[in-house]
Amino acid sequence: MNRDALDPRLTAASISTNILSGLCLMAEDRGIACERWFAGLRLTRTQVDDASVRVSYRQASRVVQRALRDLPEPDVGLRLGRQQTTGNFGLLGLAMMTARTFGDAVAIGLQYSPVSGSLMDLELDASDPQALCFVASPRAPEDAILPFLCEELFASTLMLCRGLVGPSFRPLRLELAYPAPVYAHEYEALFECEVRFGMPRNRELVDPAWMSRRLPAYNPVSAQQALALCRAQMPRGPASGEIVAAVRQLLRARLHEAPGLGDIAAELHLTERTLRRQLVAAGSGFRAIHDEVRSERARELLRDSDLPIAQVGASVGFRDAREFRRAFKRWTGTAPSAMRAAP
For a designed S-S bond to 84, which of 77, 156, 201, 287 qualifies (C-beta 3.0 to 4.6 A apart)? Predict the structure, then answer.
């Protein structure tokens, strides 16, 4: 049986599209068409630039494989990683930058790592008093893209750390579980430390003395605000599977049109029957997803805009304001006007 079918972690749409977007920008700078990277993945080039879109590891890893075949440079991961700055990490970067110490920032980065879009699992091993070890584990045994995944992760976190505490930051050692590439000298030039290849695990060793370093941008108020926004972006409950995520994304983009099952099936190049069957297999249904997306968007508009309630209803596909009010009360248990008036 296919590995992807066995491990739901590989098909859960829980990963932000930062890395995929970066690869696309790289390709476009080189005049390389990247639309074909998304063929057969229920994903488009436009969607990877949408901050609300989440993809599965299976989707992301396939895009990476295709990108590495097309991009001419062998060190794509290093190039992509060293382009990153604290600002590229968005809310997570802001939360880390405004933390009290580097150690606090590291703890925030590990806790909210899903916000960053990493394709590897990262954990801290503090069992050695001489060195803190950041261990990166791939979600699936894919040797072809492991160098890229490690390069992008360790290079981008290096740039983040230097953005937090200054350019003097360097690891004690970098250990990687794959053979040295032909451009191995570039690792030492970037990381400014010993680099060992063919090791049992992928890990970066850091001097514990860095952890108590105070951060110059520490601001307790900004830190609290940024952390609250990071918490809001974290996955809540089990992540949707690929087909449910694809339907949600298409519905959200076309809510004002009130698309039906047939419209979405056509966009996915499926028959209505096939889409219905796949949604049932994923434990969901089209109407439930449609209502959930409409409810989410309506609540956003009621909270964040001054649109009249009739226009909020029209924005989520209702031509009749009374019908929208009835549906909204069914979804939330309260009237749109009451939700807008709530503190």
Answer: 156
